[in-house]
Amino acid sequence: MSLIKVAPIKPLIKFEDLEKLDIRVGTIEAVEDIENSDKLVRLIVNFGDHKRKILVGLKNERANPQEIEGKQALFVVNLEPKEMMGELSEGMLFDIGYADKITPVLAIPEKMVPNGTRAG
User: Fold this and answer.
1) Residue 12 forms part of a structural domain
2) What beta strand segments (E) does 1-120 contain?
3) Looking at residue 120, what is its pLDDT?
4) Given CB 3.0 to 4.6 Å as the disulfide criterion, which of 84, 106, 107, 115 pairs with 48?
5) Domain assignment of residue 119, yes or no
6) What mean pLDDT comes out for the span 77-105?
């Protein structure tokens, strides 16, 4: 494992600010290619009571983006939808490493939990 230069801790926030984030566990049911995009794929994520399409930049991070199909991961589900490559992304994958410029890995629960379970 390579070392990174650890970034400084961000400014303090109030607990109420943290509570604004809605981070939930979802199962990645499918990883689909987005034509004409060099980095984006479409995840179909099951949150228990509904499914969402979430666009993520995995093409340059993994030799085989489909290797994450069937895995549970953490997602921010209360971001405003964002249009990318003519498609609407309905959340954000909560991964580890991207901000530190290392190959990101999934933030996953240590064992299976029901889809839609909240983090925090």
Assistant:
1) no
2) 23-33, 41-46, 51-56, 72-76, 82-84, 87-89, 92-93, 95-96, 105-106
3) 85
4) 115
5) no
6) 93
Is residue 114 scored above 70 in pLDDT?
A: yes
The CATH number for 91's domain is 2.40.50.140
State residue 46's pLDDT score.
98
Total domain count, the chain:
1
* Tokens coding 111: 């064992």
How far, in Å, CA of 47 to CA of 64, rounded? 23
**pLDDT tens digits for range 2-38:** 678 899 999 999 999 999 999 999 999 999 999 999 9
Strand partners, 44: 30, 53
The per-residue b/e assignment along 77-104, b for 16 or more CB within 10 angstroms, e otherwise, is: beeeeeeeeeeebbbbbbbeeeeeeeeb
Has residue 44 been placed in a domain? yes
Joined tokens for residue 109: 């629960």
Evaluate whether residue 8 is within a structural domain. no
